Amino acid sequence: MKILVCISKSPDTTSKIAFTEGNTKFDENGVQYIVNPYDEWYALVRALEIKETSGGNVTIITVGAAADEAVIRKALAIGADDAVRIDADPTDAYFTAAQIAAYAKANNFDLVLTGKETINYNGSQVAGMIAEELDVPFISLATKLDVNGATLRLEQEIVGGLQVVEANLPLVVSCAKGMAEQRIPNMRGIMAARTKPLQVVAPIAVDAFTAYESYTLPEAKKAVKLIDPNNMDELVNLLHTEAKVI
Amino acid sequence: MKTLVYINGNHAMSKASFEAVTYAKKLGGDVTVVSSGSADLSKLGEYGASKVMVDKSLENGDAQQITRLVAAASEAIGAEVIVFSHDLVAKAVAPRLSVRLKAGLISGAIALPDTSNGFSVKVNVFSGKAFGSVSVKTAVKIISLLPNSIQPEVTGAPCAVEEFNGNVGSPAIKVIETKIPEGNIPLPEAELVVSAGRGMKGPENWGMIEDLANALGAATACSRPVADIGWRPHHEHVGQTGVAIRPNLYIAVGISGAIQHLAGVNGSKVIVVVNTDTEAPFFKAADYGIVGDAFEVIPKLTEAVKKFKAAH
Fewer CB atoms < 10 Å away: N or C end of chain B? Predict the structure, then answer.
């Protein structure tokens, strides 16, 4: 099976979030970029597990600048065969999805995997957009994926619970918790990643649908009001009269 | 202006649906609802819909079928804005629809659009640590609204329901089994949430958390370690890798407040933290804090809530 795993870079989960240029750009000063955790822990690791049991090939793809190759090498160290970087600024979800879909179509991938969302933009858009571009089914927020020939059996989150579904390849799947466990790359993987093929592909011409105009930070929280543990009536009273939530 | 709202037929009479219709009404134009299945959706007129178009031939439908249905309805009425409630159906359907209609999608909107200079909408970004303003460049716009972002408002009377054929085709995804626990409020829609962590020492001690939740009419949630060890089901796990929620009240019991947990709850309007450790980082994110033993504090809080409920 030919599997394409879409990865995005995201700031380390402990990064300080700040903005610059009149709050129009994310402040990258001192920020460590990682592979978006959902792309890495769930999509990439499950793709590798499928390859290990059923054979095939795992390719990583990202849309980004040359500086993002450090993040691609991190993903390769975990164990993909090769990687593709579409050489463009991923301006919005549609632009990104159109680039990946064009590459996936030209290279006949059977299965396209993504994380459920990125931890920086949280849009949950790219996977569904790739599926529509390719005109193939899309399973969102899958927590389990088993291969049975050309048919896949998956479990996915639905409103208020889970459902078990079957679908045929080709298919696009976004992966959520439960799909696989995080793998820590070993030294051999890190060394091997340096020489794995990384192809740079020119973008196709397409216009973004949306743009981030500006950012704001939430107002700083006021200091916590401490309540006497023996006076829960006071807490209930404050929740009613001051906070007005009950 | 013509606005179309997609309502999930299996979940139509929910607060999230009423919020989506109210939001559409507040955009100022004529509001049409499109849905599928057999539920009676005339009540959505009370929140501002002037009519409901329903495809009765489609009971559940996969994302491709629902995309075709919404696209057909959008074309039929000439929609300029399409509104979804940002639930798991919207996450599968709205991106497809965006590509199909060449319409920019804003996911996770938390406010009405600002049209003073173009069309931009406020959303949560960086896992709730910041807000972004996203502009849409396309003629048709799709907005997927985060639950608990606006209050539903009754402004009218029940509306007409018309049958509509969305020419949805056949499903490409076969549903084998559905597992939905009975009687649960889906966490993202809950207004009040009681959540607990490892400080509870074991799953056998969750009775007092459930008692407090029942007294308040709240949903229950948990931290990641608790779901990972299997004390509580995974769908209760809130945080960066679990569900992100923004209830009016979030009560965190025996949860230290790691940054990954806060990322899932920092949109909550009011946070109450109960912890024995005065140094727990969660106190910095809390509005009200109780330094004390949950096993003593929670039963007292439950009694206080019951007393309050009896008096009001």
Answer: C
The mean pLDDT value of chain B amounts to 94
pLDDT, one tens digit per residue, over A117-131 is 999 999 999 999 999
CB B112 within 8 A of CB B27: yes
Q: Which residues of A touch B173 (CB under 8 A)?
A: 137, 139, 165-167
- State how far the Cα of B179 lies from the Cα of A155, in Å rounded to an integer: 10
Chain A: give the shortest CA distance to residue B241, in Å: 7
pLDDT of res. A205: 98
Which residues of chain A are within 8 Å of residue B286 when distances are taken between CB atoms? 221, 224
Mean pLDDT of chain A: 96
* CA-closest candidate to residue B269, choices A218, A199, A69, A117: A218
- Find, in chain B, the residue whose alpha carbon is nearest to that of A212: B134
- Identify the pLDDT of residue A14: 84
Q: Give the architecture-level CATH label for domain B2-163.
A: 3-Layer(aba) Sandwich (3.40)
**B187-311 — its CATH code?**
3.40.50.1220
Chain A residue numbers touching B249 (CB-CB < 8 A): 239, 243, 245-246
Domain spanning A2-216: CATH 3.40.50.1110: no
Give the residue-averaged pLDDT of A202-222: 94
Are residues B107 and B86 in contact, defined by beta-carbon separation less than 8 angstroms? yes
Please enumerate in sequence order all residues whose Cβ is within 8 A of that of A188, keeping only pairs 6 or more positions apart, or say none.
none
Q: Which of residues 194-253 of B touch A (CB under 8 A)?
A: 216, 234-235, 237, 240-242, 244, 248-249
